[in-house]
Specification:
By secondary structure, the chain is mainly α. Helix content is 74%, strand content 2%. The protein has a two-stranded antiparallel ribbon.
């Protein structure tokens, strides 16, 4: 099957997302407000100090802004798939002439395009104009940041999709989603830089894929990684992405056989 149906699905999702103007602009306003809160929070923390673990106020604000922006893409369509499994609608989807996972990924990409224009772009403009956040050290870092961020977004989407596929195996996935949210909030580096973690917690973060969703791309943006380390990190991101995609296909195939055997 050509890619055109999935391209159309992605465009349809974008049209759906922008069709509710009040909701659209309320999300924009809420993200700008979050940006202001973050700025004053860290300003208060740094009131009596010039640096925390060699991180200046300007660097921390830059990190926090970029972390919030990238973290906004960590959610995916796992909840949608889980809902379809729970209601039985997935059985109808499986009879249609397209790959269900492909459709879900298309919907997810459409939502993320909307997120960029509705949330990320306004936040970047406000942060650059009024907060004075830093830029990447040079053009090469900027390019590597874009590559790392795209891989981070895809990685987050696939991890979220795992929860949806697990709905075939568990009756309710709400608890799994809550646990996933708590784990990601900590180990992606969305709350604070992983460099501030104690050694034992940093070791755990280093062996998990989650830091490649936020901490690594933001570190690339700020130039805290060397070019060599950045390229290695990007290759590791790609490895995690391919591995998780393969894992999803395996558990998806097993789940489909389970549905067929049970007559679903």
């Amino acid at each position: 099957m050509s890619m055109n149906p999935y391209w159309q699905m992605m465009k349809s999702q974008i049209k759906i997302d922008i069709s509710y103007s009040a909701w659209y602009w309320s999300k924009t306003a809420s993200m700008v407000f979050k940006l202001i809160v973050i700025f004053y929070f860290w300003s208060a923390v740094y009131e009596n100090t010039s640096a925390i673990s060699d991180i200046t106020l300007g660097q921390m604000i830059t990190y926090s802004v970029m972390a919030i922006i990238i973290n906004n893409y960590s959610a995916g369509v796992g909840a949608l798939l889980a809902s379809q499994v729970r209601t039985g609608d997935v059985a109808i989807e499986l009879m249609r002439p397209y790959d269900v996972i492909g459709k879900l990924v298309s919907i997810d990409l459409g939502q993320k395009v909307t997120t960029f224009f509705r949330e990320s772009l306004p936040m970047l403009l406000v942060a650059y104009i009024f907060l004075g956040i830093g830029f990447p050290p040079n053009a090469l870092y900027a390019v590597l940041f874009i590559v790392s961020t795209l891989l981070a977004i895809l990685l987050g989407s696939q991890i979220d999709l795992i929860i949806g596929v697990l709905a075939f195996y568990f009756k309710y996935t709400f608890g799994l989603r809550m646990m996933k949210g708590a784990i990601l909030a900590l180990f992606t580096g969305a709350l604070i830089p992983i460099s501030l973690f104690p050694d034992w917690l940093r070791f755990i973060a280093d062996v998990l894929p989650f830091k490649y969703m936020v901490y690594v791309p933001v570190s690339v943006y700020m130039g805290t990684l060397s070019i060599t380390d950045t390229i290695i990190a990007i290759l590791i991101q790609l490895g995690w992405l391919v591995g998780i995609m393969a894992f999803i296909r395996v558990i998806w195939s097993v789940a489909l056989r389970k549905v067929t055997i049970n007559g679903g």
